[in-house]
């Protein structure tokens, strides 16, 4: 149970850190990362918070991925909810300053992307499953048999175009994000000597079975302790 709690804390910390990275890139104010373009545009259109837009988008994507045959993980569900909640908290308390110049904005954007890369290390390392958007990428790759890069690029481009039409900010930061996201993850993982392909993610059912199994074991131990 201790190991499970450690993994859970790692997951939650990773999701919080990811929200921090998103808010830093948004407050850089030189153009949002692809998915954030959509979230901000959706939030403006619907008159809701950016966090709420992220959560609703995650719910829709999860439904689509399930229909496409992908299995969910506990981390998928927490990702869907907690990142949006953390984003609203951070934006609401105005903890992270807004850039007042292009140079400051560029620095904040790069820092934000590397924060996201570090968050991805913690999140993936918890082995509780992929996030909704990553699950969609995998599902489309399996269904279409197209290269994963093509599917990822198509999803991100679609998010940018729709988000831009809805009022999300597209700028130099969007272009930089598209090119630097992969590099920041690659260099961060290399520095931490972390291989994401070695992680065996639990499905939601497997996590449930693990918890049930440990609970039964605990009950058996308690029962045996009571025996004369």
Write the layout of secondary structure elements.
Elements: H1 2-28, H2 34-46, H3 50-67, H4 74-93, H5 102-125, H6 132-144, H7 148-166, H8 172-191, H9 204-226
How would you describe this protein?
The chain is mostly helical and 228 residues long. It has one domain (2-213). Helices cover 78% and strands 0% of the residues. The chain has helices at 2-28, 34-46, 50-67, 74-93, 102-125, 132-144, 148-166, 172-191, 204-226. The chain is globular and about 55 Å long. The relative contact order is 0.19.
**Oligomer state of the chains in this structure:** single chain
* Overall residue-averaged pLDDT value: 86
H and E string: HHHHHHHHH
Shape type: globular
Q: What brief labels describe this structure?
A:
0% strand, mainly alpha, 228 residues, 78% helix
Give me a quick take on this structure.
With 228 residues, the protein is an all-alpha fold. The chain contains nine helices and no strands. The chain is 78% helix and 0% strand.
């Amino acid at each position: 149970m201790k190991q499970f709690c450690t993994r859970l804390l790692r997951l939650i910390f990773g999701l919080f850190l990811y929200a921090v990275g998103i808010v830093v890139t948004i407050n850089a104010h030189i153009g949002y990362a692809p998915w954030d373009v959509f979230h901000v545009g959706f939030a403006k259109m619907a008159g809701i918070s950016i966090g709420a837009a992220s959560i609703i988008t995650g719910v829709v994507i999860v439904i689509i991925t399930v229909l496409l045959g992908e299995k969910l993980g506990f981390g998928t569900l927490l990702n869907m909810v907690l990142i949006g909640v953390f984003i609203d908290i951070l934006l609401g308390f105005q903890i992270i300053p807004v850039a007042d110049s292009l140079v400051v904005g560029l620095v904040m954007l790069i820092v934000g992307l590397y924060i996201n890369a570090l968050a991805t290390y913690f999140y993936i390392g918890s082995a509780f499953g992929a996030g909704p958007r990553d699950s969609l990428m995998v599902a489309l790759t399996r269904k279409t048999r197209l290269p994963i890069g093509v599917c990822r690029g198509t999803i991100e481009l679609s998010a940018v175009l729709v988000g831009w039409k809805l009022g999300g900010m597209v700028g130099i930061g969007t272009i930089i994000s598209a090119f630097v996201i992969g590099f920041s993850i690659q260099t961060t993982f290399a520095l931490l000597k972390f291989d994401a392909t070695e992680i065996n993610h639990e499905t939601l059912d497997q996590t449930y079975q693990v918890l049930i199994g440990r609970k039964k074991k605990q009950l058996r131990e308690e029962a045996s302790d009571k025996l004369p």
